[in-house]
Design goal:
This protein has 875 residues and is α+β, with helices and mostly antiparallel strands. The chain is built from 10 helices and 44 strands.
C-alpha cells in the first residue's frame, strides 16, 4: 500500500485539505502522512472486504471520495458521502486496490507525536469520604478539609493539566429524589450490611453486581470540561444531568468489585447484566469500538493505545469477598470485544490509607502491576497535592510517544518520524584534519540521536603550509604569511616568530578569583591593540587591561569566540551577578552531611548547569531571572516566556528547560526534595523534579504542585526518591511556564514542615567598593557622571577600563581581588539564556542608577552589536 497526497482542492471550500490513500482491501492497519503531517488511517473492517477510514478534525464536515486510479476526482460522481463523522466504513467493489481521498473545509488534523491513552477514573463515592484529612482545605476555591474535596480538587486539576489523555469518570452508583443542591444533596448509596468481605459470608450477588457502577462522564476526546464540572465545587443539580452542572456526591458503602465489573461492561459497549443503564447509547458509549485505533496492535501483542482504569478508594471492599475484586481487576486485562482481547490495566490509589495495604496491593497486582519485592505498586496520597502527583505518576508511563528506535511507537504508520536528523551526516566537532565523521543514529535511550563516527580523524601534526589545519587548533596555515612585527597578545600564537608564544604579554589578561573555583576578568575585555582612546582593530586575541578602551561593537557570538581564544568562556548570568554582588558561588558537588537529616540546600539560580528547550508549540523556553518580592540571595528564576504552555513529565527531557544540582549522597535511602516557589495561578503552579546519575536522560519522577498562597511557598515531593550512595543530580524541569523558583533543598527527613534554612545573603546592589547597597552618584560611569567637565552639557562617553574617577567602581572580593566596572561604562554580554536570547548585564555610561545595578539585565538577539556593549570572560 502506498500513499499519494493530492494537490487538488474542491471548489468553494475555504481551506481544503486533501489526503489520498491507496488501499489494499486485505491490508492490515496502515496510515499515510501528507506533506503537512496529516494522517489518514485505514484498517480492515469486521466483515470480509470492509474498509474503515479514520482521521481527526475540528468537527466540521468532510467529503469521502473513492476511485480506482489516482488522483481521485473530488466531484459528486466519486463522493461516497458528506459526513461530520471522523470515521467512515466502506464496502468497495471486488477490486484489489482502491484509492480514497478525504477533503474538509478546515484543516484535518491528527496529532501523531503523542498517542493519548484512554483513562477512566473510577472514584470511590462511599460515605467515609466525609472524613477530614488534617491537611486543611485543598487548593481549589470552595473546598473543605474532607477526603472528598481533596479528591475532587486533584481530579479536576489532573484532568485539566494532562492534555495528552482522553478521560472518563465514574463512581459507585448513587440515587436521589433530591433535585435542589442549594442545601446539600441527599443521596442513597449501596447498603451492604451483614457482608463479611474476608470470607464472603452474607455478601449477596446484588451487593456486588455490575449495576453498582455508573458513568458520570464518558470517554470522549475533548470531554475534559464535563469531568471538571463534576468536581468544580459548584452545584446546579443533585441529578446526573450533565447540562445542569451536577457535582460529585457521596453516600453508602464501597462495592469495589461490582464497580470494576461494571466498568468492564462499559468498555465492552454493554449495559449492566440486569439492564441497568451504565451510559446511554450514543457519544461516549462503547469506547473500544469507537477508538479509531482499536485494530492496531503492537508486534508483541496488546492494543496500541493504552487503556487504563485508575481506581481511587479510601478503604477496602465492603460489599463482596475480597477475591471478587481481584478477579474483576484481572478480567479487565482480557476484555473481549468482537473476538479480540484488549488489555485494560487497573491502577490503584488508596487515598488516606496506610501505605502497603495488602488488599489494595492485591488489587493493583491483579490489575496488571508487577509485584516487585519490597515495593508497593499502589499509591497512598493524603492530600490533593499528593494525589495530583500520584495521578501524574500513574499516567506518566501510559502516554505513548514516538521514540528513536526503528519502531512505530505512536502507531501512525511511520517509524521515528519525530527525529528528522536520523541518518544525516555528522562529525565530532574537532577542528582540522583531526575531525572524525559519520552519521546520526538513535541513542540507546530512544530520546534522540547521536553521532555514530565511522571515519576517524588524523592525529595532529606540525602545521605546514597546505591549506589544512594540521595541528587541529582551529586555524589554517598560521605562521605561513610571514612574521608580524610584534606579538599579538592573547591569541596563543607566536606572531613574531621568535619561538615564544605571547611573549611580553604577561599583563594582557588579569584574572580575579571570586570563589567556588571561578575566575573572572578584572577589567572589561579589550582588543590586543586597544589604547586609552581607541578600541583597536585586531580581533585575533583578547585582553583585559586597565587604561584602554573596552572591546565594543561586538556580537555575542564574536564575544564568545574571543573568550574561547583565551581558554575561557562568556560568564553565565548567575556567575556575573555573583561577581558583581560579591556573593560566593556554590561549589559542586555538594556533599550530604551525616547530621541534620542530611539537609543540603541550593539557590535556584546557583545551578551547576541549565539548558533551554523547545516544547511542542515550537517556543524555546528557559529559566530566566525573576525578581518577585521576597526572593532569597541574588534573585529567583521563572520558566519563560509565559504563554500558558505545559509539558508532561514524559516529554520533559526533550521539551522542558532544566536546571541541575549535583549532590554526593553519603547516606543511601529515602530522600525528599523541597522547592520554594511562587504560583500566580493554576496554569503556573507545578514543576517536575528528577533525580538521576546523568541529568536529563530520563523523565522526571516527581511533580510538585504549589498551593495558591500569593507568596513564596515551600512544597515537597509526595513520594521520596530512593537514593544510592554516590554523586547524583537533582534536576528541575518546567512543568508549566510562568512557575517561579527561588530555592530548593534535599533531606532525609519525612517531616511535613518545610526545612529551616539560614537566610541567604543577596550581596551588594551595585559594584561599589564600599556601601554597595546605597547608590553613590558618580562612583561609576553612568548617566549622572559627566565624563568631560570642560565641554558644556553632560557628556556620557565610554571611559578606558578603571577610568571612573575616585577609584571606587569595583566589587571587592578581598585583598588584590577587585573586579572593576561591573556597574556602568559598557553593558556586558553574558552566556545565552536560550538560542537567540542573549543577556546584557551591568548597564552603560548612559544608564540611570537602576540600570547599572547588579540585577539589571536586558536581552538582545544574535545579530545585535552596539558601541556601548562589550563583554568579559570567565573560566
Amino acid at each position: 500500500m502506498s500513499g499519494m497526497p493530492s494537490g487538488t482542492a474542491r471548489a468553494g471550500m475555504r481551506a481544503t485539505c486533501l489526503l489520498t490513500l491507496a488501499v489494499s482491501v486485505a491490508a492490515a492497519v496502515r496510515a499515510v502522512r501528507a506533506e503537512d503531517g496529516i494522517v489518514l488511517m485505514v484498517q480492515q473492517g469486521h466483515s470480509p472486504g470492509q474498509v474503515i477510514l479514520s482521521w481527526s478534525g475540528p468537527g466540521n464536515t468532510f467529503d469521502v471520495h473513492r476511485g480506482t486510479t489516482p488522483p481521485v476526482p473530488t466531484d459528486p460522481e466519486t463522493r461516497l458521502d458528506t459526513t461530520a463523522s471522523l470515521q467512515w466504513s466502506d464496502q468497495p467493489p471486488d477490486v484489489p486496490i482502491q484509492y480514497y481521498t478525504v477533503t474538509g473545509s478546515d484543516r484535518i488534523r491528527r496529532p501523531v507525536d503523542v498517542l493519548e491513552p484512554y483513562v477512566f477514573l473510577l472514584v470511590d463515592s462511599s460515605g467515609s469520604l466525609s472524613t477530614t484529612t488534617g491537611f486543611g482545605p485543598p487548593g481549589c476555591p470552595g473546598g473543605a478539609d474532607t477526603r472528598l474535596d481533596h479528591i475532587r480538587c486533584a481530579v479536576a486539576k489532573t484532568v485539566e493539566d494532562q492534555g495528552d489523555a482522553v478521560f472518563g469518570l465514574g463512581r459507585f452508583r448513587l440515587t436521589t429524589t433530591d433535585s435542589d443542591c442549594a442545601d446539600g444533596c441527599v443521596m442513597t448509596g449501596t447498603t451492604c450490611t451483614g457482608c463479611d468481605p474476608s470470607t464472603g459470608a452474607g455478601c449477596t450477588t446484588a451487593m456486588g453486581s455490575d449495576g453498582r457502577f455508573e458513568v458520570l462522564a464518558p470517554l470522549l476526546r475533548g470531554g475534559q470540561p464535563d469531568l471538571i464540572h463534576w468536581n468544580d465545587f459548584t452545584c446546579g443539580t443533585c441529578t446526573t444531568d450533565p447540562g445542569s452542572n451536577p457535582e460529585f456526591s457521596i453516600a453508602g458503602m464501597g462495592p469495589i468489585a461490582g464497580a470494576l465489573r461494571g466498568v468492564r461492561r462499559y468498555w465492552q459497549g454493554l449495559q449492566a447484566l440486569d439492564g441497568t443503564t451504565l451510559w446511554p447509547a450514543g457519544p461516549g458509549f462503547d469506547p473500544i469500538r469507537a477508538d479509531p485505533l482499536r485494530g492496531a496492535f503492537l508486534p508483541g501483542g496488546g492494543q496500541c493505545r493504552p487503556y487504563l482504569v485508575v481506581t481511587i478508594v479510601d478503604g477496602n471492599e465492603t460489599c463482596s469477598a475480597h477475591g471478587d475484586g481481584t478477579a474483576a481487576a484481572a478480567a479487565l486485562l482480557a476484555t473481549d470485544v468482537d473476538g479480540s482481547d484488549f488489555r485494560i490495566e487497573t491502577r490503584l490509589v488508596g487515598f488516606g490509607v496506610a501505605p502497603g495495604d495488602s488488599r489494595i496491593e492485591d488489587l493493583a497486582h491483579a490489575g496488571g502491576a508487577a509485584d516487585l519485592p519490597g515495593a508497593g505498586e499502589a499509591r497512598y496520597p493524603r492530600s490533593s497535592g499528593e494525589l495530583t502527583e500520584a495521578l501524574t505518576e500513574l499516567l506518566r508511563g501510559a502516554t505513548r510517544s514516538e521514540r528513536c528506535n526503528g519502531a512505530d511507537d505512536d502507531c501512525d504508520g511511520i517509524a521515528d518520524e519525530e527525529f528528522p536528523g536520523l541518518g544525516a551526516a555528522c562529525d565530532d566537532g574537532v577542528p582540522g584534519v583531526c575531525r572524525a565523521t559519520g552519521y546520526r543514529v538513535c541513542r540507546s535511550d530512544g530520546a534522540g540521536t547521536e553521532c555514530h563516527l565511522t571515519a576517524p580523524g588524523a592525529s595532529p601534526s606540525q602545521e605546514t603550509c597546505n591549506f589544512l589545519d594540521d595541528d587541529c587548533d582551529g586555524a589554517v596555515d598560521e605562521g605561513c604569511g610571514g612574521c608580524a612585527a610584534a606579538e599579538i597578545c592573547g591569541d596563543a600564537l607566536d606572531n613574531d616568530c621568535d619561538g615564544a608564544i605571547d611573549d611580553g604579554c604577561s599583563g594582557c589578561i588579569e584574572w580575579v578569583d571570586v570563589g567556588g573555583g571561578l575566575e573572572i576578568m578584572r577589567f572589561e575585555a579589550s582588543r590586543p591593540d586597544a589604547t586609552p582612546n581607541a578600541t583597536g582593530d585586531l580581533d585575533g586575541g583578547v585582553c583585559s587591561r586597565a587604561g584602554v578602551q573596552p572591546w565594543t561593537d561586538v556580537s555575542p557570538a564574536a564575544a564568545a569566540t574571543a573568550c574561547a581564544m583565551a581558554g575561557a568562556r562568556l560568564c553565565t548570568e548567575p556567575e556575573w551577578h555573583r561577581a558583581c554582588a560579591v556573593v560566593r558561588p556554590q561549589v559542586y558537588p555538594v556533599v550530604e552531611p551525616a547530621a541534620n537529616n542530611g539537609l543540603v540546600d541550593f539557590e535556584a539560580e546557583d545551578h551547576l548547569a541549565a539548558t533551554s528547550a523547545a516544547a511542542a508549540d515550537g517556543v524555546t523556553r528557559a529559566f530566566v531571572p525573576d525578581s518577585t518580592t521576597g526572593f532569597s540571595s541574588i534573585g529567583a528564576l521563572a520558566a519563560g516566556p509565559d504563554t500558558g504552555a505545559a509539558v508532561a513529565a514524559a516529554a520533559a527531557p526533550t521539551q522542558s528547560p532544566r536546571m541541575d544540582y549535583a549532590v554526593t549522597f553519603t547516606q543511601p535511602g529515602l530522600h525528599y526534595v523541597w522547592v520554594r516557589g511562587f504560583a500566580t495561578g493554576t496554569a503556573s503552579d507545578s514543576i517536575h523534579v528528577g533525580l538521576a546519575a546523568t541529568p536529563g536522560t530520563s523523565a522526571p519522577g516527581r511533580t510538585i504542585i504549589l498551593p495558591l498562597t500569593g507568596s513564596w511557598t515551600w512544597a515537597r515531593i509526595g513520594t521520596p526518591f530512593s537514593v544510592a550512595a554516590g554523586t547524583q543530580y537533582v534536576s528541575l524541569f518546567m512543568a508549566e511556564d510562568g512557575f517561579r523558583v527561588d530555592r530548593l533543598a534535599v533531606t532525609r527527613s519525612n517531616s511535613a514542615n518545610p526545612p529551616t534554612l539560614t537566610p541567604a545573603t543577596n550581596g551588594g546592589d551595585w559594584a561599589f567598593a564600599s556601601n554597595p547597597d546605597s547608590y553613590v552618584a558618580g562612583a561609576c560611569n553612568a548617566r549622572d557622571l559627566d565624563t568631560d567637565a570642560g565641554t558644556p552639557g553632560d557628556q556620557d562617553d565610554i571611559l578606558a577600563a578603571a577610568g571612573a574617577p575616585g577609584g571606587q567602581c569595583y566589587a571587592n572580593h578581598g585583598p588584590g581581588r577587585q573586579v572593576l566596572d561591573l556597574s556602568g561604562n559598557v553593558g556586558e554580554w553574558t552566556a545565552a539564556r536560550a538560542p537567540g536570547i542573549h543577556p546584557i548585564r551591568g548597564g552603560g555610561s548612559t544608564s540611570a542608577a537602576g540600570g547599572i545595578a547588579c540585577s539589571a539585565a536586558t536581552v538582545a538577539p544574535d545579530a545585535h552589536f552596539a558601541p556601548n556593549v562589550g563583554f568579559r570572560c570567565c573560566r
